[in-house]
Structures are given as structure tokens and as C-alpha cells.
Design goal:
By secondary structure, this protein is mostly beta strands. It is built from no helices and three strands. Strands 2-1-3 form a three-stranded antiparallel sheet, with no helix packed on it. The two termini are 20 Å apart.
Amino acid sequence: MVKPEEMRQCQTSNCGYIYNPDKGDKKGKIAKGTRFEDLPDDWHCPICGASKKSFKSSV
């Protein structure tokens, strides 16, 4: 089971989109509860298309 402190949010500096593990990414077919670290390497921001490398921890 994933601990709450491991469910960090990440934000891209490109458009300000915040990936929230509690919500997942419906557009990218990412299930709720998926940690940012567990996203596929080819996952991109659903708003601007930025890669995972463009995201920084926001909380």
C-alpha cells in the first residue's frame, strides 16, 4: 500500500498543470492512485504535452 507521503503532486513549469495522484489522468488513462514516479516514461502533460522531466514536486 502506498503511504500518503509518497503521493506527491508534481507541476510542470510550461503550463502550470499539476499531476495529482489522487485523481490520476483521465485523458492519459492513468488510474487514480498512480504515483508520479510510476507513470510511464512516455507519459506527457495532458494540457501542453510536456514530458515527465518538465515536472517538479509541488507539495
